[in-house]
Design goal:
Blueprint lengths: L11 H8 L8 H12 L3 E2 L7 E3 L5 E4 L5 E2 L3 H17 L5
Antiparallel strand pairs: 1-4, 2-3
Length: 95
């Protein structure tokens, strides 16, 4: 993704545009990775499209578990998830 650097974030215009989603760019996988922090109790890990590769006999041929990195506490992740859910259920995202 493209993010303003620390010096650019000192600008009130850059700071304002970033607050509502402009001023930086992300692709879908980067957004998915960020929001998964709330579902993974504060741990970040790379999203994957395949959980495992299984041969015709049902045997797991290849299974990869990406590394998990603790970003913030489980309680913070739960609070953020609650805020996001409330936005959908009671806020501007109801429809």
């Amino acid at each position: 993704g493209l993010f303003p650097n620390v010096v650019e974030l000192q600008s009130p215009i850059i700071k304002a545009t970033c607050s509502y989603g402009y001023g930086f760019s992300l692709n879908f996988i980067q957004i998915l990775k960020a929001y998964n922090l709330f579902n993974n109790s504060g741990f970040i890990k790379d999203p994957s499209l395949v959980y495992a590769i299984i041969d015709k006999n049902g045997k797991v041929v290849k299974s990869e578990e990406s590394e998990k990195t603790d970003i913030y506490s489980q309680s913070t992740a739960k609070k953020m998830l609650k805020i996001l859910r409330k936005t959908v259920l009671k806020g501007t995202a109801r429809r």
